[in-house]
Amino acid sequence: MNRKIKFAVIGLGHIGIKHVDAIIKDQNSELIALADKVSFEEIKKKRQNELSYLDRYKFYNNLSDVLKIPEVDVINICTPNSSHYEIASESIKNGKHVLIEKPMTLSSKHAHLLVKQAKNQNKFVFCVMQNRFSPTIMWLKKVIEQKKLGAIFSVHVNCFWNRNKSYYLSSDWHGKLDLDGGPLFTQFSHFIDILYWLFGDFLNINAKFSKFRKSDYIEFEDSGVLNFNFSSGPKATLNYSTSIWEKNFESSIIVIAERGTVKIGGQYMDKLEYCNIENYEKPTFSSALSCNDYGSYKGSAANHGKVIENVINVILNSHKIATSGSEGLKIVEIIEKIYSFRK
Ligand SMILES: NC(=O)c1ccc[n+]([C@@H]2O[C@H](COP(=O)([O-])OP(=O)(O)OC[C@H]3O[C@@H](n4cnc5c(N)ncnc54)[C@H](O)[C@@H]3O)[C@@H](O)[C@H]2O)c1
Question: Which of 115, 124, 175, 295 is deepest in the core (most CB within 10 A)?
Fold first, then answer.
């Protein structure tokens, strides 16, 4: 490593602070600027002043001022889903690489434009899909690639989480169709990404949606039942819900195959619950993966340090991007295909 990669984080909400902490922790990175549409004082007040350790960083209320800082290499986009496209496009235009929180955008048209723009301007689009770094998921990918399971017959995914009234009412964008997009964009795009990463595109989709909780603060379904098949062959089902009572229940994947059966479960696909593979011993994973804990609710795997490390390694050492803009685009396309079943 010959130099540090310099980051600016836009959007200091739940996930923006995880980016900030990961950048501060990484010895090959430097945090140059923080920005949000609301004042830093207001953000600190909301977090009961637990963010005063960030006082020493320069804070901006305006994206264009951040983009004028010549030494910033990467803009971390941690704002609501609907704003990702505009901020990313403006950042690339100003010669910055972008690290975009999931989902990359809310429309494939916008994601396409970003991929093209970045290519034309020789910039990287990094997407955040940190579950790809989860030890259980990395293990499953290896087992599949090594063909230990033989032919894969079917794959079954259950994502059952709790997102309650206070979650939706505590933000000005969650639950709004045009700003949030729905559970497949905001909660479960991680698991769509894992399925795409492991098995390929979603074909012949059938989808049915329900709104079990009759709430007026959510403008879309809270639950869905899907069947489809992967471009690599296996049949698949995906059941999801954010209407689970009180707390997240599980995110699990079951793989039924010619020479084995595997179930990865836990709340965040973090536990190998069942592994029966011909001539293969069930591995043990040394440490349980932690999740992003936001106080009033819990999110996906806490792997943002790995995401930042990959960004640095791509820029400095020509490593492969963990989740590229083209892959982020593919996830948006798959979700769009599923949501075409919305009436
Ligand atoms: N990778 C993950 O596991 C993960 C987890 C949570 C959220 N996310 C994603 O991160 C993004 C942010 O989610 P969150 O939960 O942190 O939201 P949040 O509401 O907690 O925070 C968003 C922040 O962005 C600021 N903001 C809004 N519009 C802005 C703009 N145009 N310019 C500058 N600042 C702006 C808001 O004031 C707020 O501080 C979303 O896209 C979400 O889907 C990803």
Answer: 175
Same domain, 286 and 189: yes
* pLDDT tens-digit series, residues 58-86: 999 999 999 999 999 999 999 999 999 99
Q: Is 131 in the pocket of ligand 1 (CB under 6 A)?
A: no
Which amino acid residue places its CA nearest to atom 18 of ligand 1?
13
User: Is any atom of ligand 1 closer than 6 Å to the C-beta of 329?
Assistant: no
State pTM to two decimals: 0.96
Closest CA to 113 of 126, 101, 95, 125: 125
Q: Which atom of ligand 1 is nearest to the CA of 129?
A: 1
b/e map of 225-241 (b: 16 or more CB within 10 Å)? ebbbbbeeebebebebb
Domain shared by 150 and 258, yes or no: yes
What pLDDT shows up at residue 291? 64
Measured from the Cα of 11, ligand 1's closest atom is 24
- Exposed e or buried b per residue across 74-112, where buried means at least 16 C-beta atoms within 10 angstroms of its C-beta: bbbbbbbbbbbbebbbbbbebebbbbbbbbbbbbbebbb
